[in-house]
Amino acid sequence: MSALVRMRLAGFLRTGRALAPLLAGLITLGTLYGGGRAQPAEAYGVSAVVLFPVLAWQTKILLDVEPDVQRRLAQVTVGVARERSAGLLAAAVAALVTVAVALLFPWLVGGVSGPVDPGDRSIPVGLALGLWAHLLVVPAAVALGALASRASVGGAGYGVAVLALGGVGAVVFGLTGSVAPWLAPPIMAAARTTAGDAAALTLLALSGWALAWSAAVVGGYLWRRRAQG
Amino acid sequence: MRLENVWLRYHRRGPWVLQGIDVRIGPGEVAIVLGRNGVGKSTLLQVAAGVLRPGRGRVTDRPARVGWVPERFPADQPFTVTRYLTGMARVAGLGRAAADEAVTFWTHRLGLSAFRSVRLPELSKGTAQKVGLAQALLRPPGLLVLDEPWEGLDAATRELVPELIAEVLAADGSVLVSDHRGETVRLPAARRWLVADGSLSEETSSTDETIAVVEVAVPAARVAGTVARLRAEGHQVLRVRPDASTAASQVLPVEPPRSTGAARPAEPPLGMAGELTAEQPEAADAAVESAAGEAR
């Protein structure tokens, strides 16, 4: 399966289509950190929120780069389960690279500061919380991007609609006082947690929520793939 | 491998493309899938290969290693021939050294050596088709599924395809092949599956059945249509040749003699002649009548 992951990542990079989401991510982060300095945990929480649609889009592009017939050839060669898994894994690897860039970016542009007041979190704690917030976003974004991919929805228009609804829904349903917060991955809740009181139990609950949401969406993706043939 | 009561449609409310297909192919057997355009030949092949999942029914005892040559190779990929085939060999489970060895062997055998560093989108259709053939053979398949494998290939490679099929069969593999060019005449021992109206029937021939060769002359412009129709009706077109003399071309020599309706001196000049075999005299008559009708 790792050979198929490498082949798909190579296809993604060699077409140059990897540049579009990377540039979009950099522009978004540049805008985010251009307004002033913030402490790491708070900054990273917001960074994770804005990266969610970027990573989902990146996943869709990665999965859509491969021609349909080539995807079927891979399926014949390695089987259905490994073909699906290899696509998701390749998207996750690409997402982790983008996350690494997002974590480094504020230090390169001076967008973060160390603790100012006595009650502020230390830089290592802020980094750990930021890493957690970004890792929380990766499975959810990969799942949404996969659901929006051509192999899942067929036409390009439907894919864009799924991405847009997923991106907007994650913010709208994630607002404080939302009537149906479980409809969205907990990226907004994670941002609030990194900025406020980050109790271990809260982090654990949000992690479980994110994984459950991602698993449900991946289930939808696999069901769509099964229906699409 | 067996297809048990296989039904398939592409959309929930769409028409069934395959309806209750029940067929088996054993080790060392090759079957040619025949039928008109759009009847579901490629669909059947893709179900057999494991690309498509039946809506009803199931496929059992599919060999672990399947080689599938799609009708059109997906050349829109950012790889050179070597990089693509090496990648596919690794995906198929070969180690680095074995993958390199397999790629070298198959690129040489299929005449791709000169194209190894060429990017896939820059290949001609025929050369890309060779890459499609190579990727299916990098590891010896237990089931080889060839969807119009002769399409776009040069003469040398066309001759090679039956040889490759024979090698798979010799290793106790099975082969399924579709063809509308009449190249399957190169596979005389093959079973013949006819797909029509979503169902599959197998043409059977007994050893004591007499085979007749019927020569038919048709206007050159109508050769392709006539050949396609004759094949779709189950006849085996042996060859198509240009007619040497216009005078001679106005006569359709037909065997057996009872097919008298074919010779029409008042008709316009006929440009091409071909031979076909028919396993039944009635079928031969019908085929010749059909060709003569085209010539009118």
Residues in helix, % of chain B:
25-40%
Oligomeric state: heterodimer
Helix and strand string of chain A, N-terminal first?
HHHHHHHHHH
Note the overall shape of chain A: globular
Q: Tell me the number of strands of chain A.
A: 0
Distance separating the two termini of chain A: 20 Å
According to CATH, the homologous superfamily of the largest domain in chain B is P-loop containing nucleotide triphosphate hydrolases
Q: What is the H/E string of chain B?
A: EEEHEEHHHEHEEEEHEHEH
The proportion of residues in beta strands of chain B is 15-25%
Distance N terminus to C terminus of chain B? 46 Å
In total, the number of strands of chain B is: 12
The stretches of 5 or more residues of chain A where confidence is low (pLDDT under 50) are: none
The number of domains of chain A: 1
Largest interface (C-beta under 8 Å): A-B, 25 and 26 residues
Q: From the 3D structure, determine the CATH topology of the largest domain in chain B.
A: Rossmann fold
CATH architecture of the largest domain in chain B: 3-Layer(aba) Sandwich
Strand content of chain A: under 5%
Q: What class would the helix/strand composition of chain B place it in?
A: alpha/beta
The CATH top-level class label of the largest domain in chain B: Alpha Beta
Number of separate domains of chain B = 2
Quick rundown:
The complex is a heterodimer of chains A (229) and B (296). By secondary structure, chain A is mainly alpha-helical.
What report would you give on this structure?
The complex is a heterodimer of chains A (229) and B (296). By secondary structure, chain A is an all-alpha fold. Chain A is built from ten helices and no strands. Chain A starts with a helix and ends with a helix. A six-stranded mixed β-sheet of chain B has the order 5-6-7-3-8-9, with helices on both faces. A three-stranded antiparallel β-sheet of chain B has the order 2-1-4, covered by helices on one side. In chain B, strands 10-12-11 form a three-stranded antiparallel β-sheet, covered by helices on one side. In chain B, helix 2 packs across helix 3. The A-B interface holds A 3-4, 6-7, 10-11, 14-15, 66-70, 72-80, 226-227, 229 and B 10, 12, 46, 49-53, 66-68, 70, 72-74, 76-79, 83, 87-88, 90-92, 135. Chain A: Keywords: Membrane, Transmembrane, Transmembrane helix. Chain A: The chain crosses the membrane at residues 44-65, 86-109, 129-148, 160-183, 203-223.
